[in-house]
């Protein structure tokens, strides 16, 4: 996004998470899509198009979606885990891997207060900062890329991880289980977008249409098992993947989950709070 804000990015296509798509649309950083060139958009499940961050999907196409879950090794954890707050227990000193993601981690701390993940209330943001600072003695690593590695090699007993990482860790070690936190989980949709001034927009739209073919979309999920919004692809995906709670949580859990929203000017308060957590 920073490169796009300086002018033409030079990229034909990018992937942006829902709330960032909202920001980029407001900033005029995205090209409108020609849906006549993306006929496989019809394969997307009805619950995903026309979200509030991009009504009518004029600028984005859902690619993958998922959430932030708790994963833990039941062979090394003695305490019961039902919520995010359980990770603050002394048992987890220096043994957690958590997402290095400002909005998700601050949002989780907001949720623990019974507030929106996208709260703009300075008092809520300040309290979330304090909660995360209190968690620091338990955090062994911030990692948004390969959280399963520390779960599998024993460096971490538990963590706040992406759904695909929780599933892949469980597949290699069935003792690693997923918890859908009782407070309600973070949810996000990653979308294809075309940056303003893209030199080859027609080719980008052709690529998006190609990825939305059921067989191509299913193949991606087999290797990168995030939740797949492409309903037509589901018949081609292994049931083991589709039925795992970190990949496709039950409806009642999704109802408690929350998608992030643009914070507007309050993002400065969130940035400051996060920098004080990480300093």
Automatic annotation (TrEMBL):
Keyword field: Periplasm, Signal, Transport
One Pfam family in the UniProt entry: SBP_bac_8
Coiled-coil region: none
Main location (coarse class): periplasm
Gene3D superfamilies hit by this protein: Periplasmic binding protein-like II
Annotated localization: Periplasm
Stored InterPro entries: SBP, Sperm_putr-bd
Tree of life domain: Bacteria
Keyword Disulfide bond assigned: no
Protein name: Spermidine/putrescine ABC transporter substrate-binding protein
